[in-house]
Design a protein that fits this description.
With about 350 residues, this protein is mainly α. It is built from 15 helices and 6 strands.
Length: about 350
C-alpha cells in the first residue's frame, strides 16, 4: 500500500502544541502507534560484507514500492553482537550518513552515488540522469521521512531554495543564491553577466544561454539573463528530482504534519550548524578492525584463531553499544532535534 498525503494521525494535539519539536514527536508517535498491528518491516545489514554490498542492501530496502513505511521497524546487524533499540538508532544514523556522504554504488557515472551535491547549506539534488532513472530521490525522501519517524537524525545543509520548492513555493519567489549552483562554469558565467565588464568568451556564454532556452546576451538583458541562468541551474534542472524527492517523503506519512506545521520543516531540514551530533558521527570515524591484538589490563588476546576474531568483534560490539547508548544521555550529544529528550 502506498503511503501519501492521505495518511493522518488519529490525534490532533500536534496541531495545537506550541513547540514544533513536540509537535513532530506527538505526530510521529501517534502515526506509528496507529500502525502498530501492521506487518513489520525488516532491515538487515551484514556488517561483514564490504561497503558496496552494505550500501546496496540499504538502497534496495528503500527502493521497494508499495510499502507502509509507518509499520513497525525491526533492524538487525548480522555479524555484530549489538541488539535492541541501539541497532535501530544505528541503522537510521547510518542511512542518513550515507545519504549525506554518498552510497558506494556505481550507477554508471561514478563509484560513489551522491544524491545531493554542492556546498554546506546549499545542497541541491544531483542532476545525474542515472540517479533519476533509478528513483534515488524517491529513496532519499523515504529515508528522511523514515528517520524522522524513528527519531533518527535529519538531513542537514539542504538549500533553502530547494526546500522552498519542495513544499510548494514558486520559482519566482525561491531564495536562490549563486552558492546554490554547484556548477562552477555556470557560476562564472552568472557573475560575468551580472557585472558591467565586457563579456569574455561571448560565444560560449551565448551557447550556454541557448541550451537553456534563453536569448543571446546584450547590454540590456545581461542582468536578467544572469538571474534566469541561476534559476535554470538550481530549480529547473532539478525539478524532476525534487518531484521524486517530494513523492518519497509523502509516502512516509509526514505530509499532513509538514503542511499544517511549517515550523517543523527546519527540524526536518536543519542548517549545517544546527545538525544533530549523533553517536553515528563518532562511530563512522572509527576504523573497526577485523584482526587486531587487544590488550585489556593483564588480559591479552593474540588474534591467531577464529575464537579470537569473535572476541575482537564482541569487544568492538560492546564499545559501539557504549557509544550509542551512553552518549544519548550526555548533554553534548543531545540537541533541540532529539525527539527522545
Amino acid at each position: 500500500m502506498e503511503e501519501t498525503e492521505e495518511v493522518t494521525s488519529s490525534s490532533t494535539e500536534w496541531i495545537t502544541v506550541s513547540d514544533p519539536k513536540q509537535a513532530g514527536w506527538l505526530f510521529s508517535q501517534d502515526l506509528l502507534h496507529s500502525n502498530r498491528d501492521s506487518n513489520s518491516l525488516f532491515l538487515s545489514v551484514d556488517v561483514r560484507q564490504d561497503k558496496e554490498e552494505q550500501d546496496r542492501t540499504l538502497v534496495t530496502f528503500y527502493k521497494t514500492d508499495n510499502v507502509r513505511w509507518t509499520s513497525p521497524l525491526r533492524c538487525k546487524l548480522q555479524g555484530d553482537v549489538a541488539t535492541g533499540s541501539g541497532v535501530d538508532r544505528h541503522m537510521m544514523s547510518t542511512v542518513m550518513f550515507k545519504l549525506r556522504s554518498g552510497f558506494h554504488i556505481n550507477l554508471g557515472s561514478a563509484a560513489i552515488a551522491k544524491v545531493f551535491e554542492g556546498e554546506p547549506d546549499h545542497l541541491i539534488p544531483s542532476v545525474s540522469a542515472e540517479l533519476l532513472e533509478n528513483n534515488m530521490f524517491t529513496v532519499a525522501g523515504r529515508m528522511i521521512g523514515h528517520s524522522f519517524l524513528h527519531r533518527g537524525p535529519s538531513l542537514s545543509g539542504l538549500s533553502p531554495a530547494i526546500i522552498h520548492i519542495l513544499f510548494g513555493g514558486s520559482m519566482e519567489t525561491a531564495p536562490v543564491t549563486i552558492r546554490d549552483c554547484p556548477d562552477l562554469d555556470i557560476r562564472d558565467t552568472v557573475k560575468m553577466l551580472d557585472g558591467d565588464n565586457e563579456l569574455k568568451e561571448f560565444d560560449a556564454i551565448h551557447q550556454l544561454c541557448l541550451s537553456c532556452g534563453l536569448p543571446a546576451p546584450n547590454a540590456t538583458n545581461r542582468k536578467l539573463l544572469s538571474e534566469q541562468l541561476l534559476l535554470h541551474a538550481v530549480i529547473e534542472r532539478t525539478r524532476r528530482q525534487t518531484n521524486q524527492f517530494q513523492k518519497g517523503l509523502k509516502e512516509t506519512g509526514l505530509w499532513p504534519l509538514l503542511s499544517h506545521r511549517r515550523d517543523v520543516i527546519p527540524i526536518l531540514f536543519p542548517r549545517e550548524s544546527e545538525a544533530q551530533v549523533t553517536p553515528q558521527l563518532f562511530l563512522d570515524c572509527i576504523i573497526w578492525p577485523s584482526c587486531i591484538t587487544v590488550v585489556f589490563e593483564s588480559y591479552k588476546i593474540e588474534d591467531d584463531g577464529e575464537s579470537d576474531v569473535m572476541d575482537v568483534r564482541r569487544v568492538s560490539g560492546y564499545l559501539k553499544t557504549f557509544i550509542e547508548e551512553v552518549s544519548q544521555k550526555l548533554p553534548c550529544c543531545s540537541t533541540r532535534h532529539n525527539f527522545a529528550d
